[in-house]
Amino acid sequence: MALANSLLYELTNNSVERSIELVQLALRSPVYIPQKREIIVSWICRTIESQESSKLTSDEAAAIWGTLRSLVTDMQPLEVAVVIQDSFLLAIQKELERLPRIKHTECLLETMIALVQKAPQSTLALKLPAVVKLLSVTLKRCRLCTKQAELLDHLCLAASALMEVVISSWYQHPCTIQEAFGHLKPLLDNMMYILHFKKAASSEAVLKVHRTIKKFVHSSLLLRNNITAWLTALYEYLRLDGWNAQVPLKAKEEDSEANEDNSEAMEGNSEEKEDKVEAGEGDEMEVEDVKVNGEMLEVLQAEPHRQSGARKGDEYLLEQLMSFFGEVLKETASSKTPAAHYLPEFFSVFLEGVISFNKTEDLQSNTVLLAYFAYHLGMECTSFSGTPVVDMGLSAEQQLYFLNQLLEAYQASEQYCLVVVMPQFKRSLFKPRRWFGELAAKLQLLEYTSAAWFHCLGTIMRIAPNLVEGSMIKTLQKCWEVCGLRKPGLLKARNSLLESILTTYTALFRVPKLVRNIFSSFSNLSAPLAPTSIPASFLHKFAECCIHLSPGQLTETWQFLVNQLGYWTAGSSTTEGTSEIEEPELQEDHLPKVIVVAEIFRTFAHHIQAVNPNTPPLYVTKITELMKATSELATHMLDLSIEKQSAQHAQCALCVFHVWGELHLVLCLYRKSYGEAYAAPELLAPLDAADLSFLHPTFTGDKMDSMLAMMNEDRTKLVCHYLMLLWIQKIRALILFTDVTNEHLASTLKAAAKLVFSHVDMTVTSSVWSQRVCEISGGRFPVVSLHTLLVNFPLLAPHLPAKDATALCHFFLEVMANGQSKDEDDSSKNGRTQAGLIATFLSSQAFLECKLMQTCYVTAVWGRVATMFKARKRKHDCEEEPTGLCCTMMHALSGPVKWEKHAETVPVADYSSKELLTSEGLNKMWTAIHGASEKFVAIIAASSEEFTERIETSDVLFMLEGTVVKKSGPLWDKRLDAVKHAAHTFCALLQSPRRSWLLDFVSGGALISRLVAAFEGNLSQALEDKSMLQLYESILDALVHQAVKKKNTVRTLNSLVKEAKEVITAEQGLPSKAWATAVLVLFKELVLELYRKLYDDVKGYIQKMAHALSEGVASWLQRLLTCGKLTEELRRHTYTIALLQVQYALCSNRLVPDGEIREDLFSKDTLAALSMATAELQQPEASDVADTLIEVVARIAHCRTRSPELLSVPFPALGKGIYTQLALRATAQLQETPICTAVVTLENCIGDKHYKLMEKFFQSCTAVELKDILGDLVSALV
Q: Domain boundary residue among 230, 263, 282?
């Protein structure tokens, strides 16, 4: 007990920070302290409840709440009851009001959840008002934190736990309806907000709070006797007077009031007569029931529930409910988000609760409540009117949205079919079926350019399809008219409604009726019918429907399609035939309808089971007749297009021709009676490539000439697309109906295949095609034509020449290299791109089985590789081997699997190479080529993410700042190899796509300084190797090049420039090779940046650093010139510094506003160094710095127009010196080789890196100077 008293004393008299440490120590201590947990919990509660709690730091508060959370998990319910006091709940409430500013949110909420879940129910019942206040604050926090997902989840779990506590209390002691109104009033606004604005992509916690909110509302208003009261109030609305009588009926009522009721009833009856009502005893008596007279009033007055005089309180419940709703609406009128935007969610929640709690047979009351709420949303139907409406200020779209919520709640109960067959009150004006019919008709009069309108129609159709049947044509018209609108969710809702309609008609076996309604809906539209009016999703659904059509529906739908197209085509042909004497009536343009229906017909014909073996003979005959009618229709449409010279009419005619041809080929193959009746023409002579008369006799040559002329003028390329399909169809027909031994077959097939191939547009494009014919355009035609070719390639490949296949493979590589982006305007998920089509084709069985195509693909890959890497194949090229993907590809192309005949040369795709196609090694070679080409595509694709090198961290650690490098031991060969490997790896890092991220995390100046220090110290011997020196320069060059691009990275070079200037201006001597190389690389990159157009954010930094380095290298150059005889390295540095100083002087002078060349622009030391360079260049002996001399002279010569005094030596002498040095250098290299049989040629003299320098030099020469140089060269060669 002494320990307990001591702990209590320490906690009471110490600071909060000290007490927290003591609590944690006591909880971890194994020493037994009596009532330790109770003492600690009591101290925590006092601390939280005290006024000093607001002064706690975030860490202290988090520690306190975390400790309490851990203690509550082990506490018993009676112990928790001690904690839950009004003051403690009030403290939690204050903490919640501080969200989300506090950091211990998770501990707070989890502690609160554990407390309310563990507390005894009796205790919580006593603390119910405090719990409800806590719930109100939690819901408000949920509303304010909807954009913070993690915090919202914790808040939703806490709100759900608090609501469950309140619901449990109500289950034991249900509250009255008036008390429920009082409980809900402060909570309803936030509850409905959470329900309305957090629906899509919600987490499990949010979904749970949605369910709990509905359960909370249902439990408060509908438990036990409450549901009986609500049903009594709803039952009252099924009577004759119902909502029209706000006062009770009494015997002493004046006759005038009765007469008014009679007149209103008669008006309602006259409107009901116009509706079609199904036969039934109750419906037949409706006309007589509503004739109210005095005797009926006496009967109504004699009813038991009327004898009390006035209506009971529960008979006014609906009015009280709307009064409560209006009060909540007024109280929240000042909020930022108008309550009317989300508060009506309460209607659907309440309706859902009444339907679920109503266990009686009175299902009509549920419909009454639906009508009541719909009326208050603005849906005023004659079957339900008269009550005062709460003004919510809803827009038309919001009214429809909340109405759809009500309808969905009602539809989920599936009660409509039961309600309409139940006995109804004969004296009631409210009939559920009549009200639904009026509602569907009412919707047709409302604004339909919102997604909510289509959602409502779809929900009503799911409730009962016959409700929408009477207005189906109007509904379809509105579906077509909104095609061009781009409102959010509108087209998706429209598509969903159309799919629902199709599903319903399919289930009812009334697809022909739907097709007829679609045709009727195309007339009298307020907007022109667009080719894409019918969505692709509807056509996909329609295609699935056509697969399962019965023979009767199939032939009937086919007949409708042919007749309608024939009717509209005939109407189009008579449009221009009106008399000139009589004033012609305004003729409707049927062409848009024909275009849309042609697409429907195409979808229908490609998916029907025209050769179903179970088809009765009667329908087989009918199909044959329909084929004949379809052929005649196609001919008539083609004649009309030629007559009008209309490309759009031609598209439709060609579409019908193609449809007929596809069905004809299928029927000939699989329908014996049809095939025997068809007599295919004989191939007596080679057919013209474009001739289609073999399969379509009515498609004569003259008509084809007209089509070809239209094709050339058609910008949409639809005519070309259909002609390609018809030519491919002709090839199939020739193969099917012509004997293989026919001497004219091969030439005809080759001509047709070449014609199809010639119309493929091989233009690289990023367009996307959604696979809809109506969306073909000139920009998408390269994708469409490639798709047509590759889909039918197995049919065309045997008849295509090798050059066409090779050209196609070259096009494949061009597309894979450049066609990576997508069309932003196309959002189709099933879109087709050129790159996607090619990738699918290369992995398809068609490509694997086509040996010619594989050979051509090898040819294309080898050709591209030879172009890109031809420099690496030259024997005198000293560059390193390719790494990464390049190495993988080269290994695949020249690895262990070889193609013996074509291992050293580019393979030629011709028919003679077929002799090797049986070799197993050849197949392996094709597999290797395919793998290499994938790597190759990754290399040539600029945006490819796969082009990365494997970076070993340990290889570059010694280059990073702060790394300690061991200086013990000599630099062995293995160490040199390790340095080379590290440098290679670092180069790969700087050349990979990740290079732009490097200097954002590592200081560029410090990194270069560390790198120079590493190579200046124990790695200095590595720079004696020329290849290592080149790698070192390339690393520095890449780092500086990346650093000068951005402001935040270029500033890091300031420290490096200062350090470099101090090193090169020191009087102790010349800088080391590592520093000298770094300074020259840094100065060169800065001068190059000055040549470019600098951005304002980096311009000042680069100019200051370049000026500082210019002063430093000037001092360095001065010391070099006074050294006497210079070594090769020092001479190279001297000439390079002089060149950079000249370039910097010209760049800095260009940035001056006047731009004139000053006389003192170049220093005496710079001119002296240039004189040394020109003098050494003219020496007859080979110079060991010839490369540097040539570069300096060529670049200085390029500046002669701005500063002629830089080169005092005549240009012919310089040209002769350049040629002499190159020739001497090439001769020396040839003598070093073991076999010296080669001769000195121009190719041997001038390497790749000298081409551009020589080009610069010759461009700077005048015509006379060029003549002198050529004269010297000719004399030297002779």
A: 230
Residue 726, judged by CB atoms within 10 A of its CB (0-12, 13-18, 19+), counts as buried
DSSP summary character for residue 1205: G
Judge contact between 91 and 51, C-beta under 8 A: no
Distances (CA, A) of 346 to 167, 214, 352, 901, 921: 18, 9, 10, 81, 75
* Between 1018 and 1196, residue with greater pLDDT: 1196
Inter-residue contact 701 to 693 (CB < 8 Å): yes
Q: Which two tokens stand for residue 531?
A: 């080719």
The 10 Å Cβ neighbour count of residue 1213 is: 15
The answer to whether residue 862 scores a pLDDT higher than 70 is no
Structure tokens at 409: 């709640």
Residues 6+ apart with CB under 8 A from 1247: none
Pair of tokens at residue 753: 């295949």
- Cα separation of the two ends of the chain: 120
CA distance 18 to 436: 72
Question: 987 lies in a domain?
Answer: no
Query: Does an H or E element contain 1036, and which?
Result: helix 1026-1043
Cα(627)–Cα(647) distance, rounded to whole angstroms? 25
Q: Tell me which amino acid residue 88 is.
A: F
Averaged pLDDT score across all residues of the chain = 78
CA angle 91, 94, 99 (to 5 degrees): 130
Residue 384, φ and ψ in degrees, nearest 5: -155, 105
Residue 769's φ and ψ, nearest 5 degrees, are: -115, 130
Asked if residue 407 belongs to a domain, the reply is: no
Q: Read off the pLDDT of each residue in 1229-1241 and give the average, rounded to a whole number.
A: 57
497-515 confidence digits (pLDDT tens): 999 999 999 998 999 999 9
Interatomic CA distance for residues 331 and 329, integer angstroms: 6
Tell which wins on pLDDT, 101 or 801: 801
- Give the residues across from 769 on adjacent strands: 832
Final residue before a domain boundary, out of 208, 230, 252: 230
Residue with tokens 């013996």: 900
The whole domain housing 147 covers 2-230
Q: Sign of dihedral through CA atoms 1008, 1013, 1014, 1016? A: positive
* Number of domains composing the chain: 2
Round to whole Å and give the CA distance between 324 and 138. 23
Are residues 285 and 353 in contact, defined by beta-carbon separation less than 8 angstroms?
A: no
For 249-255, which contacts have Cβ atoms below 8 Å and span 24 or more sequence positions? Answer: 249/297, 249/300, 249/301, 249/306, 250/301, 250/309, 251/298, 251/301
Q: What share of the chain is helix, strand, coil (3-state, %, to 5)?
A: 70, 0, 30
What does residue 186 show for φ and ψ, rounded to 5 degrees?
-80, -10
Q: What is the mean pLDDT of residues 376-392?
A: 77
Asked if residue 143 belongs to a domain, the reply is yes
What is the residue-wise DSSP string for 576-636? TT--SSSPPP-----HHHHHHHHHHHHHHHHHS-TT-TT--HHHHHHHHHHHHHHHHHHHH
SS (H, E, C) 541-585: HHHHHHHCCCHHHHHHHHHHHHHHHHHHHHHHHHHCCCCCCCCCC
Report d(CA 1172, CA 1182) in Å as an integer.
15
Fill in the DSSP letter of residue 341.
Answer: G
Q: Within a domain: residue 1040?
A: yes
Please tell me the predicted confidence (pLDDT) of residue 632.
Answer: 95
Look at residue 85 and give its three-state secondary structure. coil
pLDDT at position 814: 84
Cβ atoms of 71 and 35 within 8 Å: the answer is no
Cβ atoms 328, 185 nearer than 8 A: yes
- The band of 1042, judged by pLDDT with boundaries at 50, 70 and 90, is confident
- Residue 178's identity, in one-letter code, is Q
Spell out the residues 6+ positions from residue 389 whose beta carbon is closer than 8 angstroms to its own.
375, 376, 378
Contact residues for 785 (Cβ-Cβ < 8 A; gap 6+): 717, 720, 721, 724, 759, 760, 761
